[in-house]
Amino acid sequence: MGARTWPNLTSALLRGEELATADTAWAMGEIMAGNATPVQIAGFAVALRAKGETPSELAGLVEAMIASATLVRLPEETRTSAVDVVGTGGDRANTVNISTLAAIVVASAGVPVVKHGNRSASSTTGSADLLEHFGLPLDLGPAGVARSVAEAGIGFCFAARYHPGMRHAAVTRRELGVPTFFNVLGPLTNPARPTSAMVGCFDPRMAPVMAEVFAQRGDSALVVRGEDGLDEFTTAAPTRVWMARDGKVEELLLDSVELGLARSQPADLRGGEVAFNADVAHRLFAGESGPVRDAVVLNAAGAFAAQSGFPGDFRETLRAGIERAAEAIDSGATAAQLERWVTAAQAAKAAE
């Protein structure tokens, strides 16, 4: 291919050639450093998308993005026991913040959580929007996030704060208006680097690619996409599941009805403005039953399964996780968890 230049990389992609991990890492490094023009970024992103990203190509992009990130240093014991609960966004379904609510439930059950998130990708209210409404300081620095995890068992890494180099791609992404590799990097680039994750992906082609990247780096992760298009474990349709463990990926189709949950309709999970979603959250944490609760406990169960390394029968593990999540909510632990988190994060911010 010759020297690493934008014309050489883009030309190789247009010929249908797979790039080396080092090549995509170089490209992402140039983007994050602000050395690439909007046209160079657009040409590369679209050519890679048209060819189809491979796990090794995506791994290079992830590697360079993490290398340029502001990292959160957690004690190794915490880092290797923590889980991220996150979706790529982009499903345009405008659901309530299922993964965010599930993350709070997971933490309230005693599992450390480090959530990586941003403002809305395709819905009205993103995870950052909701957490900000709850009173969480979004611009908390690395020491503050680590303190939040230590004191409250959960922390939030606001993507814009920890990956400032992504601002160099913002105009290109907005003006392109089509999904590219940028849309799936978030769940793979948590700056605290937890070793397990429960990830929703809107793109059926990219979900297994993401799972392969998790597997190749030795993480335990569940990547899911609802057959209804949701980037969540859904209760409105079966869910396609890619389980990354022990360096391998296993794919299966799972229906929440098999786990004892009622079938919902897509409209049952729909969200709205931040105040609406916050009200849904508070009612859920107060013990309200229904489709949103079912979706949240199901996604929490997926996080429990990933964090524990998928022991035993997967469906039985999920059933046990659903019960564990329900108990956390009904005991009042989840409502208390949210208050404790906001208090700890605000104190950490004040100490910065």
From TrEMBL:
Keywords: Amino-acid biosynthesis, Aromatic amino acid biosynthesis, Glycosyltransferase, Magnesium, Metal-binding, Transferase, Tryptophan biosynthesis
Coiled coil: none
Entry GO MF terms: anthranilate phosphoribosyltransferase activity; magnesium ion binding
Broadest EC class assigned to this enzyme: transferase
Gene3D superfamilies with a match to the protein in the record: Nucleoside phosphorylase/phosphoribosyltransferase catalytic domain (3.40.1030.10), Transferase, Pyrimidine Nucleoside Phosphorylase, Chain C (1.20.970.10)
Residues bound to 5-phospho-alpha-D-ribose 1-diphosphate: 87, 90-91, 95, 97-100, 115-123, 127
Residue positions binding Mg(2+) 2: 231-232
Pfam families hit by this protein: Glycos_trans_3N, Glycos_transf_3
Binding-site residues for anthranilate 2, renumbered to this chain: 173
GO-annotated biological processes: L-tryptophan biosynthetic process
Sequence ranges assigned to domain Glycosyl transferase family in this UniProt record: 80-334
Its EC number(s): 2.4.2.18
InterPro entries named among the record's database cross-references: Anthranilate_Pribosyl_Tfrase, Glycosyl_Trfase_fam3, Glycosyl_Trfase_fam3_N_dom, Glycosyl_Trfase_fam3_N_dom_sf, Nuc_phospho_transferase
Domain Glycosyl transferase family 3 N-terminal: 9-69
Catalytic reaction(s) noted: N-(5-phospho-beta-D-ribosyl)anthranilate + diphosphate = 5-phospho-alpha-D-ribose 1-diphosphate + anthranilate
Pathway per the UniProt entry: Amino-acid biosynthesis; L-tryptophan biosynthesis; L-tryptophan from chorismate: step 2/5
Cofactor: Mg(2+)
Binding site for anthranilate 1: 87, 118
Cofactor binding mode and count: Binds 2 magnesium ions per monomer.
Function per UniProt: Catalyzes the transfer of the phosphoribosyl group of 5-phosphorylribose-1-pyrophosphate (PRPP) to anthranilate to yield N-(5'-phosphoribosyl)-anthranilate (PRA).
Family: In the C-terminal section; belongs to the anthranilate phosphoribosyltransferase family.
The protein's name in its UniProt record: Anthranilate phosphoribosyltransferase
Origin species: Actinoplanes italicus
Gene name of the encoded protein: trpD
